[in-house]
């Protein structure tokens, strides 16, 4: 459903999920010099009849130029603090690298660790240079990180407890916190950790990463003046002096193809060489085509239903659980995602923690969660017992112009009807949909919101807190007034514990508590889909590509 | 009229049929060199159709048979190109509405030279010289300037002269004229006819003169063919028209010479005025001839008139003289800038402000227009149309309304069978009667008729005038006749007002004004009317 | 003539002044706080809201903002996009080039095929039937359906034309724009064809054309000098409106073929509530519409002496 995703997120200020998300990509451990290896197929994928592949073998030969289609359309900005697109990760690298399995490793920062409970120290490599050849200094990193202290940054929230960002050595930067933030390190593998030249930033002021101002970063590809023709394309060139290896693709031109029919045609006719988030509805055509390969990778993308106000019937646990029981997930996965998705038992897809050193604890916690059930009878009983005032229909906000979201809404509507819930669908334009996040008055006009989203970095504790903590304690997405002491305690411990194991156990405990209440009704986790032209290889095909330089090894097979 | 040479035009047994019916049957007619032959008849009689067959403009859905020879050449025997050659070289055609028959986007010069350059292959410069001399010949002064102008810049009379000139461009001996003066004012008609007859004499043209105006035909033609219902009933020398034997011809002659009725003579007796107009004035803003903006144009300029109850008053004058605007102000369709309109003692100077007032006035005065088709709802049956008008003024039981509708229909001498029909299926005369009946539904004291009989055939016109006279005489309805037709004024009215350029220039009893006009304009107007022994003359 | 042109210009300017006020006013009064639309999913802290209000001058009175806006436009500053954080002129310049090329291409097709088939149909017979049937189909097909069909046949099956983008200029651009231009043009071809046919047929039965026939003028000349010429003001008027409305409907073709044009930007900006961009493009569309109509009027006046006559 990446298409859906990406479209949902073309809102001016993307949904918070991604913002908060923190990730590090480290695809092919570029720093260690090894080439990416194919991941063994994941279990879900094998059942479904396809392999899950998170990266393709590195290219061997240079290619002159590659045309890449952006299914999410033209990015509004290349600024890593603002827009999300698949363009920026190849241009601006982050302090830490988000690998294709969502593990985080050192990158521009050769070390980034907590030195005390509230002090985080970053040590920089001394051989990293910007496109213009100037070395990356501590001052550049202070400038770059400080941009997140602006409320307009999408990464403002994870930096909320940061009280100071200071240069503490030629290549050392120290962040001081008012309280410990357990997954802050992961945040630095996302746009929050992007390193941009201070001199450039100060010369352009607020207008960072626009078509007129360009950028000055360290990544394997550079955007030059005039490279971005608004409305038409963004042309990036290989950085000849890239500090971390040889770039094979001499030029990548990004074109904007939000129309899924056109995208399919363009890929199959070879007019464009590749795209992420290709429509699963065309999976059969892609699979049969000689034009290239269709790759399914892991993703942090998901679809879920949220309540929007304390007055919403969805503020009542029984109503939410009834809705969860009423929706036939198997049918949902088949009809909406064409099989390219899995059931999801909790708030976030399990892939999000697959790179964690303590992933076993999270996996075990997830496995112990009750299975998803489809039980219309029980759902009806729950509704009857709930005492909810259902005299008025419930209104569900759905992002407009997104076929999958609309189809999903119809399935939810039908499921609701079967158990006596009348749900009206309110399609909202991206701006209006995005505005729901910021405006309680607007949220009062609806009861439910269909959320089609993904998380860009493995900082799921912060994301969970946003959803389930009380509003006055940072639960900005907790619109129904959900409150459970066990959840609060567990999430507090998970966020502040300095020991990873302790944090994981606390999170799992909190998860047990909130899954029982189902404050958010998860529908499915999605896959990252990619189509790449015949003869090309070397791209990251998991969702890590939103945060890491996924085209570094893009090149010819032979 | 020796016939050694073949006639210019020889039509033999022409028959024209539409898929549904026969339109023209057994039409046989010839025009010799130097001869003017009139083809007269009422609308729909087939006279224009016959002329269109000669010039090759018949609708493709019509079929024609019989023989048409031009200059001794049978058109049917010729191939298409030769036929076109004969038509374009041997005959000229002048139609009724010159404004429609000239391309409005092209200059007079283009029009004049087009046939010369495109058909006769004359060089452009020579064509221009010839066009100029032709225009001069039809009495157009300053032809050079006229040739640069467009049809919109010229008056109807001038345009008709241009048409005549262009018809003669190829030096044809035969001229076909289809109602060529019908759309013109009577004084203009006289001038155009004078030009045509001068040319006819100088060039020895043969002319087929199609018209519905028997008086005009009689004045200008040598022979007259009378057509009725698709057949030529009689062809006789114009001079012997009064002695025609065919009953149809006699009827036609009778209705075209309107005799004054005795009713009009009661004018001597005093009568309360029902309508008094004093100092009426109306200006319109029109675009200036030069420069920016608009300037006032005085359409009605201090008009006074009085109409006695149960009397008939004619307002005569040429188009643009302000007579229609006067009538519209009286009926409240237009406002006056100055002056008063008094109807039975009530001040009607300004249009009615309320629905009640409008209804009250409607019960007093009604207006009938030239084209009843536009004022009748095409989807409504006559019965529902009249019933609606009746109910508006005197709501009553369905039976009462029904009875009143039938009474109205009878009062305009219509058969009750028309009640089920729609305006579209009625003839022009029937439609006008329905319009009059509708106006009478309100039992008005005053009927304003704006050129109400101008578009009708002479026989129909005579009948409707009879109906109107009856209404006036029997029901005491006063009539205000707006007309350019002096015959109509004379037939129906006791008094007349002559208007010119917005002013009343002369008024008085019809008998006095028409027999001894004080104003030269009135004299001109009277002299322009075709009548036996009339010779059209060019004036100033 | 000069007077007429001046009058047209005066009318054009006053229309634009009114249009600009209406556009600005309507969008300012549009429901919903622009702030929440601007910041979207980012956490709405009071500081951020204050900053956004200040950045976008949202606290000034409407008339003051309007004057500022108009003043900016007159001095060449179209303002800043809220979404792209860049100057609107930089955003628009390349898109105008794309849309103008697309519309010019489509307009050429409409003029040639639409007027051509209209002329053909006005001659009657089997051609008339054929044109009637195909224009009926054309009128019934929305642009995006045409786009899908064209892509399927000419790009997927035959591989003659590319599906995406504007190409590298010259012939390549023409090749890239062919399918979009055709899909944009189809409905207008049908429309213009019908109008052309209708006005030609109406002219053919006019009396002055009969006069010309009677006078033996060759039919080719009659058609050219009397029928076509007299129908041309009407055809021209329709073509002018067509041309202007193509700018508005270009969005559909632009989106279907991945062309970054003004129309695509307009719909995108509207859905993202990028008000400054919407305002400028709306004004641009109105300007094009008004200018196209004024131009058509002036050309029509050149053809038709009646519309500029001073009475003799």
Automatic annotation (TrEMBL), chain A:
Which residues lie in coiled coils?
Answer: none
Keywords per UniProt: Signal, Transport
Does the UniProt entry include the keyword Transport? yes
Domain named Solute-binding protein family is located at: 106-451
SUPFAM superfamilies assigned to the protein according to its UniProt record, in alphabetical order: Periplasmic binding protein-like II
What cellular component terms from Gene Ontology apply here? ATP-binding cassette (ABC) transporter complex; periplasmic space
Q: Does the keyword Metal-binding apply?
A: no
Q: Which residues form the signal peptide?
A: 1-29
**Which GO terms of type biological process are on file?**
peptide transport
Cross-referenced CDD domains, in alphabetical order? PBP2_NikA_DppA_OppA_like
One GO molecular function term of this record is: peptide transmembrane transporter activity
The record's comment on protein family reads:
Belongs to the bacterial solute-binding protein 5 family.
Protein's name in the database: Peptide/nickel transport system substrate-binding protein
- The protein's organism comes out as Quadrisphaera granulorum
Automatic annotation (TrEMBL), chain B:
Q: Which UniProt keywords apply?
A: ATP-binding, Nucleotide-binding, Transport
User: Can you name one GO molecular function term for this protein?
Assistant: ATP binding
ABC transporter domain: residues covered: 9-254, 280-526
The answer to whether keyword Transferase applies is: no
* InterPro entries tied to this protein: AAA+_ATPase, ABC_transp_ATP-bind, ABC_transporter-like_ATP-bd, ABC_transporter-like_CS, Oligopep_ABC_C, P-loop_NTPase
Q: Which domain of life is it from?
A: Bacteria
The parts of the chain that form a coiled coil are none
Q: Which GO terms describe its biological process?
A: peptide transport; transmembrane transport
Nucleotide-binding among the record's keywords?
yes
Tell me which family the UniProt entry assigns to this protein: Belongs to the ABC transporter superfamily.
Name recorded for this polypeptide: Peptide/nickel transport system ATP-binding protein
Automatic annotation (TrEMBL), chain C:
**Residue intervals passing through the bilayer:** 96-120, 132-154, 174-192, 235-257, 277-303
One annotated GO biological process? transmembrane transport
- Write out the annotated subcellular location: Cell membrane
- What PROSITE patterns does this protein's entry cite? ABC_TM1 (PS50928)
Q: What is its main location?
A: membrane
- Gene Ontology CC annotations of this record: plasma membrane
Does Transmembrane helix count among this protein's keywords? Answer: yes
- Bilayer topology annotation: Multi-pass membrane protein
Q: Which InterPro entries match?
A: BPD_transp_1_N, MetI-like, MetI-like_sf
Give all residue intervals belonging to the ABC transmembrane type-1 domain: 96-296
Gene3D superfamilies xrefs: MetI-like (1.10.3720.10)
- Kindly give the PANTHER family that the UniProt entry links to this protein: DIPEPTIDE TRANSPORT SYSTEM PERMEASE PROTEIN DPPB-RELATED, DIPEPTIDE-TRANSPORT INTEGRAL MEMBRANE PROTEIN ABC TRANSPORTER DPPB-RELATED
The entry's family comment says: Belongs to the binding-protein-dependent transport system permease family.
This protein's name: Peptide/nickel transport system permease protein
Please tell me the species this chain comes from.
Quadrisphaera granulorum
